[in-house]
Amino acid sequence: KTGDRSGTFSNVESFDPIKDKSIKFNAIFPGHGNLNYAATRASNAEMIAKLPSAQKYTKDSYCPKSNIMVGTSNDGSSYVFKNVVSYLRLSLVGQKAVKSIKLRGNNRELLAGELFVNTDNLNCHLTGDDIGNVKEISLDCGKGVQLSETPVDFHFVVPPITMEKGFIIVVEFTDGTVF
Fold first, then answer.
1. CA pair distance 117, 162, nearest whole angstrom
2. N or C terminus of the chain: which is more exposed, having fewer CB within 10 Å?
3. Residues 6 or more apart in contact with residue 84 via CB below 8 angstroms
4. Is 60 exposed, middle or buried (0-12, 13-18, 19+ CB in 10 A)?
5. What's the longest Cα–Cα distance across the chain?
6. Is the four-CA dihedral 86, 169, 116, 3 of positive or negative sign?
7. How large a percentage of the chain has pLDDT more than 70?
């Protein structure tokens, strides 16, 4: 279940992993159902995950449904998971309540969409011509997150890229004002 710190994976292969040591198992979290890899441009060494452009505010953390991890196993039963994305923490102070925050790169970087993860080295990338890849991430704060004199942290899950020309943050408050 998304947000849990553990999960159960089942093996449906018909071979003996003890005898065939060349087999490597991979798992991706969070999953997004069955995917017809033949209809994608993924190579045999790639898995596809969806990095969402709409993320939900989670107090003191990132949106658990947005964090992408890949697990590898040699036996199909014990997996070691590693994060393949990055995080951006924004700390705000003030008197207003935040409704949403938008993040955009100054160099038109792709920030969300289909993320291709290389299962050999865990490098990942968004491909520029994939339908659905977008250049903005929005953090939805629901009915609002009240700011104060103590910094309130907001976390974005982002692809592991360098924004060489920086980025833009747009904050919308519950009173309709924008900063």
1. 17
2. N
3. 49, 68, 69, 70, 115, 117, 122, 124, 160
4. exposed
5. 64
6. positive
7. 75
